[in-house]
Amino acid sequence: MRKAVLITIFLTCLFGICLSVGATGVDDNRTRAIASRGYQTIPKATFREIFLEHLCRRLGKDKSDITVSRFKVSGNIPVPQGEIRFRVFQKDKRRLAGFVRLVALCSVNKVVKSQVKLSGWVDIFESVVCSGRNLKKGEIIERDDLYVARRNIANLSRDIVTDMSKALGLMAKHNIREDTCLKEWMLERSPILKRGDMVTIVAESDNLKVTVPGRVLEKGYLGELIKIQNVMSRKKIYARVVNSSTVIVDF
Question: 247 and 240 in contact (C-beta within 8 Å)?
């Protein structure tokens, strides 16, 4: 009798546990079904892709020129089923390099459903002009002084030189170390005339051309008007620099 009672108790406990587990499983499934019914979650990879595409479009770069690291998504809540579209914009006016923050408005069937914050560290690679040797202040830059290299410009200033032709013939404003990425502020135009130089002043019309010697009274750049003294008459006039030995009077 005692054995039968023990068996009955054991079976009761066993079936009770099984029934309890089975009921819990049904409730969980129902809860999950209700939570996911009619909603969809946008993968983080999707936001990463639209983040990169926005950068490429705004910077005029290919995807191979940009790398994104430490990417984060905030506010990515489930949205209703339907056609999803994104509008990405930048709240501040910071440069799109280094640490970048964007906002993505997520619309479903043309109705905005969420505002998602995107952020990441952006590195931009570009071909830039670098010094091939140590350049001294006042040196005129020539082709052999430069080379082009692909560098990460995320932490460099915006006025970096990317076209070698824009550096040739310019003068170093100060000493520049070898392998330095050149910036526009490092360079300045080199005057082809300096105070005291002797030049030929040319004045001409349709039927007449007159030339007289002149003395330069200020440094002159190609194509600019500078003050010249006519050596013959001692008069001071303004003439346009043609080359290192000639200026022309504009009528």
Answer: yes
From CA 135, how far away is CA 142, in angstroms rounded?
11
The identity of residue 39, as a single letter, is Y
Q: Check if the beta carbon of residue 199 is closer than 8 Å to that of residue 212.
A: no
**Calpha distance 197→248 (Å, rounded):** 15
At residue 207, the pLDDT reads 80
> Got the DSSP string for 101-153?
EEEEEEEETTEEEEEEEEEEEEEEEEEEEEESS-B-TTPBP-GGGEEEEEEE-
CB count within 10 Å of CB 118 equals 23
Distance in angstroms (rounded) separating the CA atoms of residues 150 and 128: 6
Q: Residues 250, 224: contact at Cβ < 8 Å?
A: no
Question: CATH fold of 44-124, please?
Answer: Thiol Ester Dehydrase; Chain A (3.10.129)
Low-confidence ranges of the chain (pLDDT < 50): 1-35
Domain 125-188 sits in CATH at 3.90.1210.10
Q: Which tens digits make up the pLDDT trace of 12-31?
A: 444 343 323 333 233 333 33
Quote the pLDDT of residue 154.
86
Q: Give pLDDT, residue 189.
A: 87
pTM of the complete model: 0.61
